[in-house]
Design goal:
The protein has 5 helices and 17 strands. By secondary structure, the protein is α+β, with helices and mostly antiparallel strands. The chain has 2 domains: about 260 residues, no CATH class; about 60 residues, no CATH class. The protein has a 17-stranded mixed beta sheet that branches. The longest helix is centred in the first third of the chain and has 21 residues. It is globular and about 55 Å long. The chain starts with a helix and ends with a strand. This is DUF3108 domain-containing protein.
């Protein structure tokens, strides 16, 4: 077993340590300082509306003629697209044969507007990013022998700046940290820098850095340039970006849906496609939790690239409660949430 663990550490160090000798990136920024002080309890999936940056402008609809009142159902849908004042004003301006008819038409239109307002469901609150969050995992795996350790995912936010860190530890020999820095925008996370740090016993710290410019130009870990599509994520930010997609668009992501995610890796830019394959029960120390299982399509990655399966729990703000990292049929790591997530009291 010891030999298997040592070989596993060597594999992780050699296979996962991506370092470009020509990378002369500046030192990484200091971590965002937050305190994780409260436990996130299981709750019903959040229902939120679009954020203020993404609210669509309503399309005005033609007002009904006074002689042909709009049915109640049509009036209800119209109110969601045009202000009641506009409907009432348009109705009162509709020509009529005499004053009494005009007054009657205005009264009918006014009563329909009032009824439609009462029938319209309350608007969902605008989306706001979850507070800074920490998730701790139990790690088990296999590579020429069993592997055991722990892992952590941290989401830190300060204003419009964010940081996501994913760390994997196989003590006392190996630790890998994947750190994403960037800003929050109308389409979710917008990474600006990705660092992949590897510590192996008796070796110096190795760091691979990817820089992402606002115009889409990417400087890879080997110093080469590439162009990234809009919405590109990195190996760390992808987990929070997928959480954001479910929080804001859950109705569009049922079982059978797909999630297309442009992804920048230390040495290339590609697109990963995740299928929402099932809703499954994940048994955790805090109790059984229902989760949506996302599985990457085989063609998304290249040979020897690590693929990631995710189980996102609606009862825990669609956070990943289980992760499976796999390189081939005989090489994998399994991360399972070992306690309730911790959050900060504010952003």
């Amino acid at each position: 077993m010891v030999a298997g663990v040592l070989l596993g550490h060597v594999w992780l160090g050699d296979r996962w340590a991506l370092w470009g000798a020509g990378n002369q990136a500046p030192p990484p920024p200091p971590p965002i300082d937050v305190a994780f002080v409260q436990t996130l309890a299981l709750s019903a999936p959040p229902v939120v509306g679009p954020s203020p940056q993404t609210v669509a402008t309503p399309t005005p609809m033609a007002a009904p003629r006074a002689s042909a009142p709009m049915p109640a159902a049509s009036a209800a849908s119209a109110v969601t697209e045009v202000a009641p004042l506009e409907v009432a004003t348009a109705a009162s301006a509709t020509p009529a044969s005499d004053g009494a008819s005009a007054a009657g038409a205005a009264s009918v239109a006014s009563s329909e507007v009032v009824a439609s307002i009462e029938m319209a469901p309350p608007a969902a609150p605008a989306f706001d990013w979850p507070p800074s969050t920490r998730l701790d995992y139990r790690l088990e795996g296999y590579r020429n022998g069993p592997l055991q350790g722990d892992a952590r995912v941290e989401w830190r936010r300060q204003g419009e700046q964010y940081e996501v860190m994913v760390s994997v530890r196989l003590p006392p020999w190996f630790e890998r940290r994947m750190i994403s820095h960037g800003v929050i925008g109308p389409t979710g996370l917008m990474p600006r820098r990705y660092d992949q740090e590897t510590e192996v016993a008796l070796r110096d710290l190795r760091r691979a850095t990817v820089l992402l410019a606002p115009d889409g130009e990417v400087t890879l870990a080997n110093g080469q340039s590439a162009q990234a599509p809009a919405g590109v994520q990195d190996s760390a930010s992808q987990f929070v970006q997928i959480t954001w997609l479910f929080l804001t668009q859950a109705a569009r992501l049922p079982v059978g849906a797909e999630v297309r995610l442009p992804l920048v890796l230390p040495h290339r830019v590609g697109e990963w496609v995740y299928d929402v394959v099932a809703q499954e029960t994940v048994f955790l120390p805090i109790g059984p939790v229902e989760a949506l299982h996302l599985k990457p399509r085989p063609h998304s990655g290249k040979p020897n690239e690590v693929s990631v399966e995710m189980w996102m729990a609606p009862q825990l703000q669609y956070l990943p409660v289980r992760l499976r990292l796999q390189q081939d049929a005989n090489t994998h790591l399994e991360l399972t949430l070992k306690q309730a997530p911790l959050q900060a009291t504010g952003p």
